[in-house]
From TrEMBL:
One of its GO terms (molecular function) is DNA binding. Keywords: DNA-binding. InterPro entries: ArsR-like_HTH (IPR011991), WH-like_DNA-bd_sf (IPR036388), WH_DNA-bd_sf (IPR036390). It comes from Demequina lutea. This is DNA-binding transcriptional ArsR family regulator. Gene3D superfamilies: Winged helix-like DNA-binding domain superfamily/Winged helix DNA-binding domain. It comes from the Bacteria.
Length: 182
């Protein structure tokens, strides 16, 4: 991912557009319906920057009255974009996804729908061989693909699902790693 592409993705609205487009091909109007808290002018600017950077692409055009309606698709998924990222770009992309996750949590809590089982967080450290990791990755991607293919129904609720698997590196030795006797 080039420096320009990484910089473009660092903006929270642009990253949210990419995340929304990861599931479906959408028009700007449909993107706005999924991101109603984003001002329309900000959304149009974000889409234009993403198109100019080659992160999203126009896959269809339809004449609607006097206007041209465009349907957008992600040119490269965030996973594919980070596959060729520098370490700094990978960290920046991770921070952007984390901010997006925090925004989702804040919106959910502010909507007055919060209760302890309405959302979930899980973070575990596991020991895996490279082969086990690849198997886990394939199975998770396959399972998520099945979930994403389910269309909205009256008895379903849309969830934001964020999964990260990052090797745990040994921290540099800065002396004691305990804080306040912990």
């Amino acid at each position: 991912m080039g420096e320009l592409r990484a910089h473009v993705l660092l903006h929270p609205v642009r990253m949210r557009v990419v995340l929304v487009l990861g599931a479906d091909d959408l028009t700007t109007k449909q993107i706005h319906e999924r991101l109603p808290d984003v001002a329309q002018a900000s959304l149009y600017r974000a889409v234009a920057r993403l198109v100019n950077a080659g992160i999203i692409t126009v896959v269809e055009r339809h004449r609607r009255g006097g206007a041209m309606e465009r349907v957008y698709r992600v040119a490269a998924t965030p996973e594919a974009a980070t596959a060729s990222a520098t370490p700094e770009e990978f960290v920046a992309a991770t921070e952007t996804v984390a901010r997006s996750l925090s925004l989702d949590a804040a919106r959910h809590a502010a909507a007055g729908e919060w209760h302890p089982r309405s959302a979930g967080l899980l973070r575990e450290n596991v020991h895996l061989t490279r082969e086990q990791f690849e198997l886990l990755r394939r199975e998770v991607v396959e399972f998520i693909g099945e979930l994403v293919s389910v269309t909205a129904q009256d008895d379903t609720e849309e969830f934001s699902l964020t999964i990260a698997a990052i090797p745990r590196s040994t921290p540099p030795n800065y002396g004691s790693t305990s804080f306040n006797g912990v």
